[in-house]
């Protein structure tokens, strides 16, 4: 056990399930009405760290496996935290940042434009996030103990490319010459070390979009950053088991029963036929979970978060963008094929397998994080503090300094989206005849726009050269379509400053913000900041969401990111101005005025998502019955084969099985004939797929696919399904069923 006797902080980490509804709900990110959840690739989690000086103020940072943070989720969470802890945790010192997966349930934001495709507000999505974030913070709070924090930086070169290089090239050449790459390649990692238990977690920031999974995917997934977190946490768990002489449940190099021949295993498997569906309890799946916290109740679990930063123009589809029809590279300036955007797609390293691309980009981040984790030696020491302010970006006066030293006052604008917004990106192209780089618009879509809201001349002039497609900042029926009041926040831990921003900054926009804040900090006179490096990281998509932030020069090009910069060409300058004020107040110990309060629109939300009325099975069948079993005497090989079993099922919305599992792979223990859980629906190798024969059918089935990893132990296995069925009058019955046994060699 590693012991540190000179800790300067109290540290606590926590993690909780936020997966949400795995059926019927539109996914957040691509804004594609056809992308509706129908199963789980692996689960989503909220991961939290809390740091404080022994008698000082705490800071809380939560990384969520969601597309972005939500203002209404943040407001509800803070309300709950105040009820539980008083003024200990508030909107000022709690930061929530989304990893930007495009494969999580939507409907949890409060502004109209972000919940149109989800058929309005989805209470289950919202509650899963609020509950999960709250529980992760409670865990972290209860785990607060003396410990140390180490920081490490390093380059990761092959996990992101610039998807809008023509816009990036519009930045001044002298500025671009200061950087080797057109995306940020640096990963910054924090290593948390408990005085008693040794390492208990790590959080890192690296810029790449959560778009390895495409818009045709319907399985809930944490995408590449969620995959990296799963890999890192499993690596640590298996390392700890090896050190403590425990038997890892899933490592083939440790468990091998050489006394069992293939024939003996087949004979043993033949005794275990499929188990018919049978009633279960609510806790059945939680108790069988592979990563149950009850397994190590005496020690905090290892928490590893892969956080998002200035990913605005960074794609994980690193092979480049190509036309589906010709196989040739897409047009450089507009990302089109023959003048149209629909056929231009980026390719990930596993192309054409998006699951493999997700794994590879996740693994690359994991390996770099592991390298930084193992060599982290710079210890953070010094103040823990924070500042937060609300700013109305719809009418912010921004003072610009000209090259001759004089100044000019400009203004941001009420939110609006340009025509190129509808063109999408190479990660997910739009439809119709929209193209990136469109600074003119066209008469037909102007007519459609005007049917919703005609922007006035002052608004059009303010956003120039963006041609306005949706004047969202001035659309208020049935309630606000877009945000105007945003939360800006800085969390400080010694020489580390985390800038929580409610949007997606492009590479160069992020560089300018970090540099401006760093310059402000260096000139502050704070003795703690003299000597050594000041670390400034951007936590993207944090505490709310307001789409993109480009540089002024990138905005002129009006690619997707510029068209999605809501508050006009001076948005970035507004952020820089306000963050400089905030950082100055922080280091000088001054209080800041809270600013205008954002609206709470929870009571105004409406939903058109059809509820689950009831579930049923064909006559004579039970929920959990096996429809399609494994073949008799099945023997499969590790590292290459796939096993699939189909069960009679029910809608996953009946019970989200939070901190449980819908799917389980179990291995037979030869000695006592018991079944040990070895993989569940939080493993990348096990996929839970749910479907109905018809859209409004009360019948459904679950297909569980296990791609046997090389690390699986030889032996006898079976596949088990858990679920919950709704009866006509509203009660829910939990059930389970299992396949026949089969052999893995």
UniProtKB/TrEMBL annotation:
<feature type="binding site">
    <location>
        <position position="100"/>
    </location>
    <ligand>
        <name>Zn(2+)</name>
    </ligand>
</feature>
<dbReference type="InterPro" id="IPR038445">
    <property type="entry name" value="NCDase_C_sf"/>
</dbReference>
<dbReference type="GO" id="GO:0016020">
    <property type="term" value="C:membrane"/>
</dbReference>
<keyword id="KW-0862">Zinc</keyword>
<dbReference type="GO" id="GO:0005794">
    <property type="term" value="C:Golgi apparatus"/>
</dbReference>
<dbReference type="GO" id="GO:0034599">
    <property type="term" value="P:cellular response to oxidative stress"/>
</dbReference>
<dbReference type="GO" id="GO:0042759">
    <property type="term" value="P:long-chain fatty acid biosynthetic process"/>
</dbReference>
<dbReference type="GO" id="GO:0005783">
    <property type="term" value="C:endoplasmic reticulum"/>
</dbReference>
<dbReference type="GO" id="GO:0046512">
    <property type="term" value="P:sphingosine biosynthetic process"/>
</dbReference>
<dbReference type="GO" id="GO:0046872">
    <property type="term" value="F:metal ion binding"/>
</dbReference>
<dbReference type="GO" id="GO:0017040">
    <property type="term" value="F:N-acylsphingosine amidohydrolase activity"/>
</dbReference>
<dbReference type="InterPro" id="IPR006823">
    <property type="entry name" value="Ceramidase_alk"/>
</dbReference>
<dbReference type="Pfam" id="PF04734">
    <property type="entry name" value="Ceramidase_alk"/>
</dbReference>
<dbReference type="InterPro" id="IPR031329">
    <property type="entry name" value="NEUT/ALK_ceramidase_N"/>
</dbReference>
<keyword id="KW-0256">Endoplasmic reticulum</keyword>
<feature type="domain" description="Neutral/alkaline non-lysosomal ceramidase N-terminal">
    <location>
        <begin position="9"/>
        <end position="577"/>
    </location>
</feature>
<keyword id="KW-0964">Secreted</keyword>
<keyword id="KW-0378">Hydrolase</keyword>
<dbReference type="Pfam" id="PF17048">
    <property type="entry name" value="Ceramidse_alk_C"/>
</dbReference>
<keyword id="KW-0479">Metal-binding</keyword>
<keyword id="KW-0732">Signal</keyword>
<keyword id="KW-0746">Sphingolipid metabolism</keyword>
<keyword id="KW-0333">Golgi apparatus</keyword>
<feature type="binding site">
    <location>
        <position position="209"/>
    </location>
    <ligand>
        <name>Zn(2+)</name>
    </ligand>
</feature>
<feature type="domain" description="Neutral/alkaline non-lysosomal ceramidase C-terminal">
    <location>
        <begin position="579"/>
        <end position="744"/>
    </location>
</feature>
<keyword id="KW-0325">Glycoprotein</keyword>
<feature type="active site" description="Nucleophile">
    <location>
        <position position="315"/>
    </location>
</feature>
<protein>
    <recommendedName>
        <fullName>Neutral ceramidase</fullName>
        <ecNumber>3.5.1.23</ecNumber>
    </recommendedName>
</protein>
<feature type="binding site">
    <location>
        <position position="504"/>
    </location>
    <ligand>
        <name>Zn(2+)</name>
    </ligand>
</feature>
<dbReference type="GO" id="GO:0005576">
    <property type="term" value="C:extracellular region"/>
</dbReference>
<comment type="similarity">
    <text>Belongs to the neutral ceramidase family.</text>
</comment>
<dbReference type="InterPro" id="IPR031331">
    <property type="entry name" value="NEUT/ALK_ceramidase_C"/>
</dbReference>
<dbReference type="GO" id="GO:0046514">
    <property type="term" value="P:ceramide catabolic process"/>
</dbReference>
<feature type="binding site">
    <location>
        <position position="548"/>
    </location>
    <ligand>
        <name>Zn(2+)</name>
    </ligand>
</feature>
<keyword id="KW-0443">Lipid metabolism</keyword>
């Amino acid at each position: 056990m590693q012991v540190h006797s000179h800790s300067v902080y109290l540290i606590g980490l926590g993690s909780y399930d936020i997966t949400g509804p795995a059926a019927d709900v539109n996914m957040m990110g691509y804004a594609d009405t056809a992308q509706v959840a129908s199963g789980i690739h692996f689960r989503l989690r909220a991961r939290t760290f809390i740091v404080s000086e022994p008698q000082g103020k705490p800071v809380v940072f939560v990384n969520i496996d969601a597309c972005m943070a939500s203002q209404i989720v943040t407001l509800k969470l803070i309300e709950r935290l105040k009820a539980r802890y008083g003024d200990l945790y508030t909107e000022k010192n709690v930061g929530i940042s989304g990893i930007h997966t495009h494969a999580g349930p939507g409907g949890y934001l409060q502004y109209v434009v972000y919940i149109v495709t989800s058929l309005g507000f989805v209470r289950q999505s919202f509650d899963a996030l609020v509950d999960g974030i709250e529980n992760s913070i409670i865990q972290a709070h209860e785990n607060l103990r003396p410990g140390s924090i180490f920081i490490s930086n390093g380059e990761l070169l092959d996990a992101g490319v610039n998807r809008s290089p023509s816009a990036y090239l519009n930045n001044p050449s002298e500025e671009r010459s200061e950087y080797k790459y057109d995306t940020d390649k640096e990963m910054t990692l924090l290593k948390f070390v408990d005085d008693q238990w040794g390492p208990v977690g790590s959080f890192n920031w690296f810029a790449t979009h959560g778009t390895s999974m495409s818009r045709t995917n319907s399985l809930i997934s944490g995408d590449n950053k969620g995959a990296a977190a799963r890999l890192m946490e499993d690596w640590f768990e298996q390392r700890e088991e090896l050190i403590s002489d425990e038997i890892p449940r899933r490592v083939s190099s440790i468990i091998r029963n050489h006394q069992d021949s293939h024939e003996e295993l087949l004979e043993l498997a033949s005794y275990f036929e499929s188990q018919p569906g049978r009633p279960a309890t609510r806790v059945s799946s939680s108790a069988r979970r592979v990563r149950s916290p009850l397994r190590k109740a005496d020690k905090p679990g290892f928490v590893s978060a892969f956080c998002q930063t200035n990913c605005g123009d960074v794609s994980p589809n690193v092979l480049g963008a190509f036309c589906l029809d010709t196989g040739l590279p897409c047009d450089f300036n507009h990302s089109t094929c023959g003048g149209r955007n629909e056929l231009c797609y980026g390719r990930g390293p596993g192309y054409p397998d998006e699951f493999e691309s997700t794994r590879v980009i996740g693994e690359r981040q994991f390996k770099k994080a592991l390298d930084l984790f193992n060599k982290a030696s710079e210890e953070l020491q010094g103040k823990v503090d924070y500042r937060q302010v609300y700013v109305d970006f719809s009418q912010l006066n921004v003072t610009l300094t000209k090259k001759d030293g004089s100044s000019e006052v400009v203004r941001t604008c009420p939110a609006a989206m340009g025509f190129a917004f509808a063109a999408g990106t190479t990660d997910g192209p739009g439809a119709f005849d929209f193209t990136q780089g469109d600074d003119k618009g066209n008469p037909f879509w102007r007519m459609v726009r005007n049917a919703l809201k005609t922007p006035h001349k002052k608004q059009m002039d303010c956003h120039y050269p963006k041609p306005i497609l949706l004047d969202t900042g001035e659309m208020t029926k049935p309630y606000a379509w877009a945000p105007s009041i945003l939360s800006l926040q800085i969390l400080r831990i010694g020489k580390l400053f985390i800038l929580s921003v409610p949007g997606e900054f492009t590479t160069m926009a992020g560089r300018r913000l970090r540099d401006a804040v760093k310059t402000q900090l260096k000139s502050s006179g704070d003795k703690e900041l003299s000597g050594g490096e000041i670390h400034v990281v951007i936590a993207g998509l944090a505490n709310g969401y307001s789409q993109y932030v480009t540089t002024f020069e990138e905005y002129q090009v009006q690619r997707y990111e510029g068209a999605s910069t809501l508050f006009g060409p001076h948005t970035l300058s507004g952020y820089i101005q306000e963050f400089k004020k905030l950082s100055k107040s922080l280091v000088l110990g001054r209080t800041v005025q809270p600013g205008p309060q954002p609206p709470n629109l929870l009571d105004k939300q409406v939903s058109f998502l059809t509820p689950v009325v009831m579930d049923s099975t064909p006559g004579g069948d039970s929920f959990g019955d096996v429809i399609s079993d494994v073949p008799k005497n099945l023997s499969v090989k590790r590292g290459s084969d796939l096993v699939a079993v189909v069960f009679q099922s029910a809608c996953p919305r009946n019970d989200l099985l939070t901190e449980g599992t819908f799917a389980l792979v179990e291995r037979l223990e030869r000695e006592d004939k018991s079944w040990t859980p070895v993989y569940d629906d939080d493993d990348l190798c096990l996929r839970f797929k749910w479907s109905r024969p018809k859209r409004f059918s009360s019948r459904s089935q679950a297909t569980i696919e296990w791609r046997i990893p090389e690390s699986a132990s030889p032996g006898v296995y079976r596949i088990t399904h858990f679920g919950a069925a709704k009866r006509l009058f509203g009660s829910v019955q939990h059930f389970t069923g299992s396949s026949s046994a089969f052999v893995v060699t």
